[in-house]
Design goal:
The protein is mostly helical and 193 residues long. Helices cover 49% and strands 4% of the residues. It has a domain of 82 residues: Arc Repressor Mutant, subunit A, CATH 1.10.10. The chain is globular. This is ArsR family transcriptional regulator.
Length: 193
């Protein structure tokens, strides 16, 4: 099977939609990695994510083809570094906003997949630790709470890039925290009092 055959297969699978592209586990991992480290080659991605460099190279090219990433400047040679797409016309934060929207969409998609497939999980994994709450905070306190959460998760973060550090039975677990102020509803937002 040639690279063109794989590209054709991928076209059939994605059918030109961003949604199917985002569903792909390898591509999601690559986007997350690029968001964290900035620039990565297929070989580096393979080392960090535990996939083959050929698989990472293929999916990096597909992400570039669909406009999510681009080749990073480099000094030539066989090394081919990639980075998140830089939109030079959006210096006011639209790129970060677009990636934030993509990340939130992936989180929501993963949550919906969990809800529909949790009955297929091993019995010890058929629960989740979801919770929410409202607290009255100042902007400084909100940042402090976020820092506490980050520090609580820090001891587990290296396991993503170091598979041998994972204890037996460990699975990837989505850790999603969104801290934001609850704004009042605008007049005419569907309040049918």
């Amino acid at each position: 099977m040639t690279a063109d055959d794989l590209d054709a297969q991928d076209d059939d699978r994605t059918a030109g939609t961003d949604e199917k592209l985002r569903e792909h586990e390898v591509r999601t991992a690559l986007l997350d990695l690029l968001a964290k480290v900035g620039t990565v080659t297929a070989t580096q991605a393979a080392s960090w994510l535990g996939y083959s460099s050929g698989l990472c190279s293929f999916h990096l090219r597909q992400l570039a083809r669909h406009g999510y990433i681009e080749e990073a400047p480099h000094s030539g040679g066989r090394v081919r570094p990639w980075r998140l797409k830089q939109d030079t016309t959006a210096a006011d934060g639209h790129v970060a906003e677009r990636f934030g929207d993509l990340a939130r969409g992936l989180e929501d998609e993963s949550w919906q997949r969990w809800l529909t497939q949790r009955g297929e999980a091993p019995s010890e994994w058929r629960h989740e630790e979801a919770f929410s709450g409202v607290a009255y905070l100042t902007p400084e306190e909100m940042s402090a709470v976020a820092d506490v959460i980050r520090r609580a998760l820090a001891p587990y973060q290296d396991r993503e890039h170091r598979p041998l550090a994972r204890p037996d039975g460990a699975l990837p677990v989505a850790l999603i925290t969104r801290l934001f102020p609850l704004l009042p509803h605008a007049v005419g937002d569907g309040d049918q009092g």
